[in-house]
Amino acid sequence: MACVLITGGAGFIGSCFASMSLEEESSSVVVLDKLTYAGCRENLAPIEDDPRFHFVEGDIGDSKTVSSVLAEYQPRAIVNFAAESHVDRSIDSPEEFVQSNVVGTVRLLGAALSYWRQLEEKEAEQFRFLHVSTDEVYGSLGPSGAFTEETAYQPNSPYAASKASSDHFVRAYHQTYGLPTVLTNCSNNYGPRQLPEKLIPLVILNVLEGKRLPVYGDGLQVRDWLYVEDHCRALQLVLANGKVGEVFNVGGDCELTNLVLVQTICDIVDRLVPHLPHSPSRDLIEFVEDRPGHDRRYAIDSTKIRRELGWQPACDFAAGLEQTVRWYLESRDWVENRMNDASLHKRLGLGGGENG
């Protein structure tokens, strides 16, 4: 039976991809994750009992562990989600992002290259290394236009810079060594099991607890929102049919300002949980000091993946957002387990950095 190795597969997007892969394909799935604050076995609960599922606790930066996993499970593909991903954390601790996102990816690529070179010709031709990245590598847009696959990289945060570097290494390993890589850059994901440090779950949980809702700056930053299952379907198509060496942008075609998004979440929670003592929840909104170097607008042009692979988002944003709110309302045990990290209870990313 063919196997897919999913690195970072206990995280938000990776666990969704792992679950969907077992639901919709015959391949077995191996998840490699070092189970930091951002990844947890609980995210994989829906597939834990599937005999095709295997879990290995480990770091993509540990070449010995990665090589051992590749030798044991002989995957037909590697899908790399493993990364530090929160911009505010990167502002405070940029070197951690370099180690995880750059050094870790390079070591993973090295192990993948060694593995790929020893495969038989047919298996080597079919093998793929899919690297999952972000639209933040492109920098910030003005009031119009959208990022395409040809947009020059111009990262503005340490997180974006680390992902841009990892993207370049993926390209280099294809161009220099012939490793069959494919790369995707996606817009902001949302959905169940997203860590409460991110905007949507943070707002949902703060509303329920009657806490202030921090909105950075004037709240008019624009983001393009993509439901996590739509993203994972795109990744499945890229893995199956994407041309080697190519890049595919994946966006939800749903631009909203942060302020409108927060207000919309308030209205949904108020409707689903009537008689909250602090209703209307919009009164909890508080404008706070902006994030240093905060990108003003992101928007993805998904024309290429729509045209070449037939993908399009299936989840309407209003429906997806309400589904997400309902999931957090119904998953209080999961939430309480995730909130044990003290850093989730304080403001990060005010620009101190590791040396200042």
Q: Can you lay out the helices and strands and say which pair or pack?
A:
Blueprint lengths: L2 E5 L4 H13 L3 E6 L19 E5 L5 H11 L3 E4 L6 H6 L1 H24 L3 H6 L1 E7 L23 H20 L3 E6 L1 E3 L8 H11 L3 E4 L5 E6 H14 L5 E4 L4 E3 H15 L12 E4 L14 H7 L7 H14 L1 H7 L18
Parallel strand pairs: 1-2, 1-4, 2-3, 4-5, 5-6, 6-10, 7-9, 8-12
Antiparallel strand pairs: 9-11
Features of this protein?
356 residues; alpha/beta; Rossmann fold; seven-stranded parallel sheet; three-stranded mixed sheet; 12 strands
Could you walk me through the main structural features you see in this protein, from its secondary elements to its overall organization?
The protein has a domain at 3-190 and 228-252 and 299-314: 3-Layer(aba) Sandwich (Rossmann fold), CATH 3.40.50.720. The protein is built from 12 helices and 12 strands. The chain has helices at 12-24, 63-73, 87-92, 94-117, 121-126, 158-177, 199-209, 228-241, 258-272, 303-309, 317-330, 332-338; strands spanning 3-7, 28-33, 53-57, 77-80, 128-134, 181-186, 188-190, 213-216, 222-227, 247-250, 255-257, 285-288. A 7-stranded parallel sheet has the order 3-2-1-4-5-6-10, sandwiched between helices. It has a 3-stranded mixed sheet with strand order 7-9-11. Strands 8-12 form a two-stranded parallel ribbon.
Summarize, please.
The chain is an alpha/beta fold and 356 residues long. The protein contains twelve helices and twelve strands.
Q: Any idea what the CATH superfamily of the domain at 3-190 and 228-252 and 299-314 is called?
A: NAD(P)-binding Rossmann-like Domain
Q: Which strand order do you get reading across the main beta sheet?
A: 3-2-1-4-5-6-10
Low-confidence stretches: none
- How far apart, in Å, are the first and last alpha carbons? 52 Å
Assign a percent range to the helix content. Answer: 40-55%
Number-wise, the strands total: 12
How much of the polypeptide forms β-strand, as a percent range? 15-25%
C-alpha Rg, in Å? 20 Å
Quote the average pLDDT: 93
Shape: globular
Fold-level CATH name of the domain at 3-190 and 228-252 and 299-314: Rossmann fold
